[in-house]
Structures are given as C-alpha cells and as structure tokens.
Specification:
about 500 residues, alpha/beta, Beta-Lactamase, Rossmann fold, Helicase, Ruva Protein, domain 3, 4 domains, 5-stranded antiparallel beta sheet, 5-stranded parallel beta sheet, 16 strands, about 45% helix, flat, ATP-binding, sequence-specific DNA binding, activator, Sigma_54_int, transcription regulation
Length: about 500
Amino acid sequence: MPLKNPYETLLRISEEINTVHDIDALLERIMDRLLEALEAERGFILLRNEGEGGRFEAVTARNISKESIDSIRDLSSSVVNQVLDSGEAVLSLDAQADQRFAGAESIVMHQIKSVMCTPLKKDDRLLGAIYVDSRVATRQFDEQSLTFLKAFAGQAAIAISNARMLNMLQNENRVLRRQMNTGQLFPEIIGKSKPMQQIFDMIRDVADSTASVLITGESGTGKELVARALHVHSSRSNKPFIPVFCGSLAENLLESELFGHKKGAFTGATEGKIGLFEEAHQGTIFLDEIADISMNLQTKLLRVLQEGEVKRVGDNQLRKVDVRVLSATNKDLWKEVEQGNFREDLYFRLNVIEIHVPALRERREDIPLLCEHFLKIYAQKNKRNIKRVTPEALRLLQEYHWPGNVRELENAMERAVILARGTEIGPEHFRMRKSAADIPIGKTLKEINKYAILKTLELVEGNNTRAAEILGVSRRWLQYQLKEWGMVRGN
C-alpha cells in the first residue's frame, strides 16, 4: 500500500512528537500518528523495563487487548522476539502464507493479513520495539511501509529516550528538593531513612490541621521533637507550645499544673494559679507519657477535648480554651484500654492521628548522620577539634542495639567527644552496654573471651593495634592469644 508524501509525513510527525515530554502522553501520540500514517489497524509498543530485570513490556496499544498482545507475543518467536533478538526489522507482506508463521494459531485466529515490527534503538541501545498489523487485504504493508516505519522508529526512539531522561531528572530533582526541604523544615529531626521520610510526610500532612495527634515510640526516640515540628508548621506556630511530662508529678500537682487552682483550694494555695491549658490558649499543649495519668485526670482531660472547657481546682467557673492537644506514650495505649487503665473514649479523642517514631535500631542507616550532628554540637560546646568518627567506630555503633535510642546515642557521642584526645573518635571511646543477646549462650568463660576478641578484630578489620586498644590489653598479649589459636596475623 503506497504512502502519500512519506517524507513530509515523517517530518511533521517528528516535529510533533519531539514537543511532547511526558512519557505516557508521548507513547500515546507515537502510536496514534503511526497508525494514521500507515493506515494500520492495530499496533503496540514494547519497552524495556529497567526495574524488572530488563524485561520487555507492552506500554501502549491500539485496538489490541492485553490478552491479544500476549497471544501475538506467542507468535512473536517469529516476529517480535526475532526483532528483539536480532535488532533488525521484520516485514510480512502476506502473513497467512508466510512460512515463518506456519502453525501460528494467532495469525489465523486474528485473521492477520500483514505484519511489520521494528526495533526502537538509540545509540545502538535497544529500547524496545514497535509492532503493527493489518487484517484488511487492501491495506497490506510493503517495502515502502517498512522503510517509513524504520525511519519513524528512529525518531520515536530519540523522543522516548529524551522523555525518559527528562522524567528521571525531574524525579531526582524532586527527591533532592524534598531532602533539602526536609533539612530546612525539620532541622532538629535528623534522618534520611525511609521510616523518617514517612514521618516527615505525616508531619507535613497533619501539621496545619486541628486534629489531636498521638505520638508513639520507645523512650529516647524523639517524640517531643515530632510534637514541636507539628506545632512549628501549624497555624498556631506564633502561639505557645507547652510540653508537660505527665509521669513526673503526683496526681494533685499535675491537676493543678494542667487546670490551675483557685486561691485557698488546698493547703498552700495562697493565691490563684492559671493552668497550662489556659496558658496554651490558641497554641499547642504536648502531654508526654499520657498513659501515666490517673482516671480522675483522664475524665477532666476528656472534657477539655470534647467541650473546650477547663475548670480550675476549687472553682466552679468553666473557662473556654482553644488548644490543640498532642500526646505521646512509650506504652501500648490500646492495651492499657483493654486492661482498664485508660478510658476508651479518651483514647479515641487523643488518637485521631497516630505517628509512630521508630526505634534507632530500626533505622540504623541514620546513625552516621546523627553522629555527625552530635559531633558538631559537642565538639563546639567542649572546644574540641574533632573532625570525624572513624569507620570502625561507626560500624560498632551501627551494630549496637541502642535500647535507649537516640538519647543514648547522643550521650555516647558527648562522652566520646570529651574522652577523645586527637582529631578522631574511635571504637575505644565508646563503652556500649551489653545485652544478653550479645553474649554466646552455653559457652565457657574461655570461649566467651575468644568470641569477644574475634568480634573486636572483625570490627576493626584485623587491625591488632586497634583491637588491643579497644580490649584494654597489650598488642603483644593479643598476638600471643592469636598464636595460641593458630591465627597469627599482621597489623
């Protein structure tokens, strides 16, 4: 079937597709314009999926269902796979009579009269293939059609490659901008791990709402930092943020702190006092260790959340307050509800949104960033010229289980900065707590000592001098032990 003005058509289509930069829209445009130019009935484009082991997948199609594409790819041992394997185009003027397709059920089933398929290549790199066919005898392809398809595929491959590159650069730019913004928006919360990125996303999503947020996680994970970030990025940021540690005060003192008291309300109340809820009016109050408050205080807190009212101790007057309540706990609060220690209605009022802060052992990849952060703080504070934490020390820190989480790491870094005498912090500057899991069970003392020595050597990559420093023994003694075990090694 002769083409009308093939060169003009090719030029016009090339100019058009090179203005489309969205990869999905581009593939649709390529398919539409190709079928129009060839007066083809059906077609599809295969592209290599770099994320799926380089497998070729159908990314767009016209007048062909996915099942039909799979069926055609069955015969593609003679067409599509031949093109992908050889990198050369294939044309069948009469598919029904073509011996290459003998026994191909889909040719008969789909009544295909003519077939063309050509590779999509950019700089000798195979991107995929374009397949078209016709089931109408008056629209059978010829050599001119194949020449046009090959020239068109060359332009399409360039456009697809450019669109993919642009898409990749835009994605990288978004990631970098997000990481940069994360550092600017949450300078006190250190971390680039996936769990921390999810927390940053949650903070962005809920910061400016009025919803109560329950922040969960082990002690020392940084729950108050999350609460402060929620306040700072809310519309209440220019109003008070008041943290309250609920586990440190007796019930009567905590009640007076939260709700205030009237003069003479109890012995020692020589004057009236405004409560923290009133102080936090139009701002945010953060109730840390919320699981520790008594049932009596839970009832009064529920009234604040439901009615927006507080009553000072010894006073009958109700006072309106507009306060956003953030709370935190290191306990399983729902378990406390089930055990009768916490009100179910209060639980649901506090837990409109839950943000879980992961333990440090669940985001070990953030430990180098945290070390760098604390090193800067405590080196400056203690006027120490310490440049870095050595790789051996970082390996030690990343292998440790951190029961005290970020708070324990901060304390360890502060101690290491104070103890270090040079410009580096090494493993010898840390004294990590041992857990039962760190000690081999059912071993003799001699075997445990050997285990500790070998683990230390592994940590410092076989450096005898460094291992001896960490173990608190002489290098000569260490070498003697290794010789006893038939494991003499150099420095």
